[in-house]
């Protein structure tokens, strides 16, 4: 009788795989080495696959005392896809495959997949351990001029042109991703996305992609019942108890999308640890960047603390021309005034916003919580330029006076330090404080408006629920009237900031400007305890207002200036 043994010398832990996966794993291993000279001794394993409950192998006598490794290092395989390829070929550079999905399904873990120029009309799914990598060898899907085009395909439920689900250690880079639209009409079940990440996973990087023309074409509005209208350019949803960790969105461009009730780039739900850096999000008909918590339908199994995006760095991004009414009307809102922010925090916590630019949006930045009883908390907004937005520069707090209604949330422990706000007034103000704000530090900022200094600030007259509001060392200015500082800023200045070229997006000031060396130094943040902060800052100490200004010049070089730019 032949005993059944776990094959220990194969590159995969075969005992954890079913027969189909075991067979696919071994085939990937063999194919990866096809044509190579294998320097293998006779005692190396010769696997035998049996249509039964076990697999057997010949084990070397000297392997009896060899400890089983705690984790394998998979044979990283490099394959190629070309528009004139053939899936019956080997996938080598001179014999490329035809379809991206075929490569993902057959290349094995930690594969390096290179996709050549051309238009690929596929819906791509990266799912499970066979498409994942490991920390030292992430799976790579890299474009060399490839376009993924969804023209003619109808989104069903939540789907991306690229969907990553329950996968880890993934890099997707260099693609143009375009044309994925719902049908016209009142109601449908589609929620299209350019890139969609959900489930459980970690260490996923999306970089250097161009995502556009993802369209929600429903005519239903927020006042209709039993209909939905939503799309994302990039939609990342932590919809499991395990959630998503260590997500990187680097140097992507997201534009010309029709979003319905949703956002161009969003991180929502159980997501902990993310970097959003050097992205350009523009010309979309709703919010640009959104960081969300408390939405019950995102993670049904999550506790309330789990169901919040948290621990992230949002740095050197541009949000431009994201508006509900100014750049293509959004039917979901039925012609109401625009309230699309360039950057929006809706129930998330522990996020650094640094060196970003927000312009041409309905609102420059909003920190609030739509969920009754919810809160956006522990947010640092430092060295950002917020200018020429249509209505408001920065809005804070729950927007409804009743805490039990939508918009009844709050903000807590918000630091707004060394930012420049310029000409954001529409019918509102540069800075709008709504309801239930606690522990606000508003320090070293430049606020320069269109009309009078009294109109730079807006807040409810009574019952706002504000607690500990710290205003200090800000510069206030307005074009037509300087009638005093609108808040109790004992060390504030009323003075012309003397910008050099603010209308073209430069926060720099002239030599001799009153903001130079007029700021007050700030202590670093030291009490954000998640390991994420230890990984990204020495000893977990987050510098305030950051290591550099918006022009990447050093901040910590003598007395601080006011505003986003250090002279």
Automatic annotation (TrEMBL):
Keyword tags: Secreted, Signal
Cellular component, GO annotation: extracellular region
GO molecular function: carbon-oxygen lyase activity, acting on polysaccharides
Localization: Secreted
Gene3D superfamilies tied to this protein: Single-stranded right-handed beta-helix, Pectin lyase-like
Domain of life according to the entry: Bacteria
Main location per the UniProt record: secreted
Protein name in UniProt: DUF1565 domain-containing protein
């Amino acid at each position: 009788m032949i005993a059944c043994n776990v094959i220990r010398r194969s590159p995969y832990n075969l005992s954890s795989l079913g027969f189909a996966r075991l067979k696919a794993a071994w085939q990937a291993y063999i194919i990866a080495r096809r044509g190579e000279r294998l320097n293998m001794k006779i005692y190396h394993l010769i696997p035998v696959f049996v249509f039964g409950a076990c697999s057997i192998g010949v084990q070397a006598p000297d392997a009896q005392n060899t400890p089983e490794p705690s984790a394998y290092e998979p044979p990283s395989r490099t394959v190629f896809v070309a528009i004139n390829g053939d899936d019956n070929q080997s996938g080598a550079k001179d014999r490329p495959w035809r379809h991206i999905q075929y490569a993902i399904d057959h290349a094995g873990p930690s594969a390096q997949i290179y996709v050549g120029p051309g238009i690929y009309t596929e819906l791509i799914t990266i799912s499970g351990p066979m498409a994942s990598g490991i920390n030292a060898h992430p799976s790579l899907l890299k474009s060399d001029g490839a376009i993924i085009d969804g023209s003619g395909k109808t989104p069903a439920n939540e789907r991306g042109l690229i969907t990553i689900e329950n996968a880890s250690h993934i890099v997707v880079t260099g693609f143009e991703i375009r044309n994925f639209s719902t049908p016209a009409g009142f109601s449908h079940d589609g929620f299209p996305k350019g890139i969609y990440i959900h489930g459980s996973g970690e260490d996923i990087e999306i970089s250097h992609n161009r995502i556009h023309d993802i369209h929600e074409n429903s005519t239903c509005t927020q006042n209709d019942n039993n209909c939905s209208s939503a799309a994302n350019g990039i939609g990342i949803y932590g919809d499991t108890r395990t959630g998503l960790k260590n997500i990187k969105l680097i140097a992507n461009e997201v534009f010309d999308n029709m979003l319905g009730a949703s956002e161009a780039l969003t991180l929502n739900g159980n997501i902990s640890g993310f970097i959003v850096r050097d992205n350009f999000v523009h010309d979309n008909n709703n919010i640009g960047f959104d960081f969300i918590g408390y939405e019950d339908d995102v993670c049904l199994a999550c506790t309330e603390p789990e169901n919040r995006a948290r621990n992230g760095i949002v740095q050197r991004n541009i949000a431009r021309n994201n508006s509900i009414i100014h750049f293509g009307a959004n039917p979901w809102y039925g012609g109401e005034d625009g309230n699309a922010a360039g950057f929006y925090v809706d129930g998330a916590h522990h996020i650094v916003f640094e060196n970003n630019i927000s312009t041409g949006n309905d609102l420059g930045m909003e920190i609030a919580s739509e969920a009754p009883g919810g809160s956006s908390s522990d947010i640092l907004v430092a060295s950002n330029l917020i200018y020429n937005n249509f209505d408001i520069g920065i809005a804070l707090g729950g927007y409804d006076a009743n805490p039990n209604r939508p918009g009844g949330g709050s903000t807590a422990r918000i630091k707004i330090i060394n930012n420049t706000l310029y000409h954001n007034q529409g019918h509102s103000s540069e800075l709008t404080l709504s309801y239930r704000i606690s522990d606000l530090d508003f320090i070293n900022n430049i606020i320069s408006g269109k009309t009078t200094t009294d109109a730079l600030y807006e807040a409810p007259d009574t019952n706002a629920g504000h607690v500990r509001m710290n205003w200090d060392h800000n510069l206030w200015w307005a074009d037509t009237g300087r009638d005093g500082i609108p808040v109790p800023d004992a060390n504030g200045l009323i003075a012309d900031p003397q910008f050099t070229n603010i209308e073209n997006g430069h926060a720099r000031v002239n030599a001799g400007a009153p903001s130079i060396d007029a700021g007050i130094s700030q202590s670093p943040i030291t009490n954000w305890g998640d390991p994420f902060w230890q990984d990204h800052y020495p000893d977990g100490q987050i510098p305030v207002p950051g290591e550099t200004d918006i022009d990447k010049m050093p901040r910590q070089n003598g007395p601080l200036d006011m505003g986003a730019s250090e002279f």
